[in-house]
């Protein structure tokens, strides 16, 4: 922004110039004639030097000097012709004839610079003669600037006679070289800083004009604004506030009352002793006047600011003691609002009264109510006292004998199975296909998934997306957490627990496996894949299944389409896997093998279409599932234990939990205790396999709605039980562990279902005989892989665990042991 209104920058000039004096603007016919004539005249004046300047230089000069030929010639001489002359260097400088009386040794350059200093920028032709201006040969511009000096006539050589330096030896003489200076402006300004061009000046003038115009407009506007201010034109004495006048003790004389009109005449003001005092004696008045002279006020109209401060607005305003609150203008405002008891006061009074007296409207109070204010208070107190803080009534407990209800119920059996196996073995795809074949998922949904998956080049995962619902799972193409789904056949309601295969998510697999009655182990039959899996998560998952207590396994030999439904491959896998499983303690009768292609849907529900698989005449996967019984009998009569696998909080004050009932029974209206928080809650509703029921039993996966509990007391991994036989919480346990790796006192994580508790192996009590359980060695320093040992675990916090429960011990992302709490 310009520092003042006359300042401008390049942009300003550019814009103005461009608008009004375009560079390409052509000369008018008159200008053209003048230019032609001027050019000819200038050339004539320049004589033989005319060829040393260009037409443009001549015309520029003419244009800038308004066709003044002499000035243009002078300018051209000075600017182009003088500088075009060869500059004498010290070595090449032609020796001038030394003037008389002048030191022969004085060089041209030294003198040149001397005069340069004396005459400012002018420097030409000091030694030259014959230009008609004087012996110094000053150029016309200089001659104009220094008219007197140009007439001085000095005898040649006499000028420097008394100069001491003239006798300076040649070798001591300095050579002065004129410093370079920027070219001056066209108007012949100094050769110092470039001046403003004509166009710049015009632009600046135009800008100045605009600014002045704006200033005038602003002034007018300000005047208008001031007029709008509510100021009166009352006499000055009225506008000066009394307190101020009193403070200054200035009282204008009545006969000297200032007129309303502004005047520049000073006003005499008498100083009095008191505001109300009499006029003082003339002597005193003189003295007072002298004093007053110092405070004589110019009788000009007060400024807008002053009038705003001290003046009174027109129209009568009500006198106010205090500034009014903004809300007082409201129609609902009553000035007596606070002179009566507030509603709170009434409520508190009523509550105090209700504390002593039985509530309820009485005839007396109704009668009083008609008597105005007192009655109103009574009415309020009655209604308040009838209010009471009530908690939602607990849900009704029907007092059912749940075991009997379960036995006589004709409902289908409920079975949960976990799907395990190495990463990418095809677990999710298989479950997606199963749900599609059983019409629990529509074909168009799978088609939609396929279209979506195609965009990221993952169309082969379309069926897996039926189970893998999370965006991250779909992006990465891996299952991360347990995915739950349901389907049912004629006899059975199945709950699918699709586990992640990746080693990073083994804890989630443990959680899924701990909810399952049996497992589907998916093996990738493709060349090399099975072998890889058996070293990886196929092996770890089987170990975990066994540790958690899963006894029944259906082995789905998948992707056989990729090996041409090779019977040899199928047999090879059966042989190796069954040996591995029986080695871990699985009974052969509880293990079955099914050749399948999850992707194509072969042998899931329908038989294999490929003729290459005609050798197979066994059951389909679905048939194998139907024939799988839960590994152990339902612990219906044991105390209720339900591990919480998920918590959903609703805004209606209910909390919904999901999990599997490990043992016991429950019904709507039961009081439950959540461990380890110890908080109690009521069961509001129970959903088993999507059906709302009044009760649920061990082995069922349920969704419970709880009331009368703050959800902050409930976490995944907590245990629900009845208060009468609640699970205890502890932080140290002894367990009988099967070692999968070397065990020694070290930090570990304890896993049970969704419960993950950090702690450490505190001590190794003894190694035990696998078959009999007898002590083999007491207090060994380390337990070898494959051995069974009794160890003590110390956890960082108390957790709900009890004897007989199966737990898994992991360390550094590896499963190192599993076993039973003692
Ligand atoms: N050719 C063929 N490919 C299959 C078959 N089953 C699964 N696949 C492919 O194998 C890949 C992995 O399938 P998923 O179902 O995601 O494997 P997963 O075991 O669930 O993977 P994680 O849950 O991440 O361990 C996908 O590209 C599937 O299309 C099959 O029977 N035949």
UniProtKB/TrEMBL annotation:
Its main location: cytoplasm. Gene3D superfamilies: P-loop containing nucleotide triphosphate hydrolases, Translation factors. It is found in: Cytoplasm. Residues 323-341, 349-363 have a biased composition (Low complexity). Keywords: Cytoplasm, Elongation factor, GTP-binding, Hydrolase, Nucleotide-binding, Protein biosynthesis, Translation regulation. Residues 412-634 form the Tr-type G domain. Residues 8-29 have a biased composition (Acidic residues). Residues 209-237, 365-380 have a biased composition (Basic and acidic residues). It comes from the Eukaryota. Residues 1-34, 198-269, 310-399 are annotated as: Disordered. It holds the Pfam family GTP_EFTU. CDD domains: EF1_alpha (cd01883), HBS1-like_II (cd16267). Belongs to the TRAFAC class translation factor GTPase superfamily. Classic translation factor GTPase family. EF-Tu/EF-1A subfamily. This is Tr-type G domain-containing protein.
